[in-house]
Write a structure and sequence with these properties.
153 residues; alpha+beta; four-stranded mixed sheet; 7 helices; 48% helix; binds FE2/S2 (inorganic) cluster
């Protein structure tokens, strides 16, 4: 973590008055700013909130949204919840892994491939999200077309 990033991290922590009960909110602040919560960030947060690193790490590892590695330039999420599974999200995920060359939960420089559990788009299953934009009825062909249109890969 650069000195500048450390200052930004401290500002995020202090914007929540360095209160341990605000841990989730300030972790979201780190993800919004940096895209992930690094080991250095966990150390900084633990120091500032007077918590153990294990306490902070436990919360980070519990929630899917708190990545611990720098993500790809684009975030692709495929719904793995029940309605989407019934409509082929497992097959879509297999296809996505092949097309992107990235396993689920992993990332390349260009893209992170992540599971998500319901995008509120169940009527149009299977659903996916690219950089925060939701798409429905995603077949393999539609996936390829969306990736070509939305990503610079
Ligand atoms: S189950 Fe996939 S969008 Fe709801």
């Amino acid at each position: 973590m650069s000195p500048q990033d450390r200052e930004i991290g401290l500002a995020i922590i202090r914007s929540f008055d360095s209160k341990p009960k605000m841990l989730i909110q300030l972790l979201h602040g780190f993800v919004d700013k940096f895209g992930f919560v690094s080991d250095e960030a966990i150390r900084l947060i633990a120091e500032e909130l007077n918590l153990s690193r294990a306490d902070v790490h436990g919360v980070v590892s519990y929630y899917h949204d708190f990545r611990t590695e720098k993500p790809g330039r684009h975030i692709v999420k495929i719904c793995q919840a029940e309605a989407c599974q019934a409509m082929g999200s497992r097959e879509l995920t297999e296809h996505a892994q092949q097309r992107l060359g990235v396993e689920l939960h992993k990332h390349s420089e260009a893209v992170s491939l992540e599971p998500v559990y319901c995008l509120g788009n169940c009527a149009c299953a299977p659903a996916m999200m690219i950089d925060g934009k939701t798409w429905g009825r995603v077949s393999s062909d539609r996936f390829d077309a969306l990736i070509a249109a939305e990503l610079d890969t």
